[in-house]
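Format notes (please read before filing issues)

Several people have asked whether sequences and structure tokens are stored in separate files. They are not. Every record keeps both together, in the order shown below: the sequence lines, then the token lines. Line labels are part of the format and must not be stripped during preprocessing.
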Amino acid sequence: MSKQIPVYHSIEEVFAKLIPTYGHTFKEYDVNHRLDQPNNKGQLGHIVEEGILGYPINSDPAADLAEIGVEVKTTGVIATKKKEVRAKERLTIDSLNYVDIVDYDFEDSPMWQKADDMLFVFYKYLEGEPYGDMPILKAAINSFDEADVEIIKHDYDYILDMINQGRAEEISEGDTMYLGACTAGHGELVPQPFSEIRAKKRKFCLKQSYFTQLVRKYISDEEFEHAISVEEIREATFEMAMQANLSRYYGLSETEIRERFSIDGSPTAKNRYERYIAAMLGIKGRISQTDEFLKANIQLKTIRVNEDGSITESMSFPTFKFTEIVNEEWEDSETRERFVNAKFMFVIFQERDGELYFDRIKFWNMPEALIDKYVQPVFEKTKKLIQQGRIVESMAYDKKGKPKRKTYFPGMAFNGVCHIRPHGQDASDTYPLPMPDKKTGLTEFTKQCFWLNNTFIAKIIKK
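Then the structure lines:
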């Protein structure tokens, strides 16, 4: 006699099955031995569906719990050292079929039909531990905030517009705020309807930064300030709303800004520019910690333009670990993810007669085509040098007798866009090396990171 498949008539019935599993591990519910398939990425989701909720796996594109219109998503949560939580990865929603999607408006799209009502099953991701030993934390039925829906709709319309223009090959995940079009597979190319150029295969996803905010909402009930209002988002895109709010202060000098908003503290403090923008927007805390900036992973970068139009400082990214980069392939690397997902709000101050004036803001993200053209070669060379133990090219000493080491890492002249150089507090701020440096015998080396050249940034912000 075949096992009867349950039919759920309400979300309450679903939670009645899920709540007793909190604190228990996946291996306790692995009725079909999914954990015996270590390369199966969806194994935990299958365990939830088969072993807890009791319905079989199928390839039906409709929502998992079709009778109540709910899509089930099982996802990992990482606890950070600062006692915060974050999503382990982005949340994929649905395949992006370039040919079919042009027939759907946002509200009727298969993507939104799945995303609108999602049931999250969160588990605690434990690095290095078997998935079967990871505990289920909590389940939550998602409800998007009104402002979030408006922003996601803008994101969807942007992606759809790129396809309608025959420019699907130019889509980058960093182009949008919350809803991303992430690559699927390893660079596989597929047809698009309005161009003969084949484009990368992609999926709709909620970006990792956005999903992390949802995790915090449901796991720790954190509250965050908003940079803009729901009313503003209804009328325009986030970027347009920010431009409208800040443009009224264009042309003010630092002195005038400090006086207008009664900003105290040192006039040379490193955080003063973020304080200026926060004051202009009426934000009490840090703008980088507002809901929208966190969800979209927007990084505020102050660009000080010299009177001759040049920029002194290059732009850094987080440090990388030598022992990790040597084991990564470019397409799946943390470096590529950081560049693809980085979205910047440049706050541009122009020097005139020895004083800095608020010139404008500019939103920017590096197109994936440029990332693969300029950052990948730097990644590949750096990885190879570390694997070979060829890091230090020569040694010299300054007037105080401190060693100055010249490395083989790609410098600013390598391709004119991206380079590698230190980003530690000092030379003693190091990471371990996977193999000793051949010239010096060092087993650890000063922390390094990827940088975008100042000359490249100058071209990006040029009017």
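For reference, the curators noted about this record: Residues 11-219 form a domain with the ECO RV Endonuclease; Chain A fold (CATH 3.40.600.10). The chain has two domains: 11-219, 297-461.
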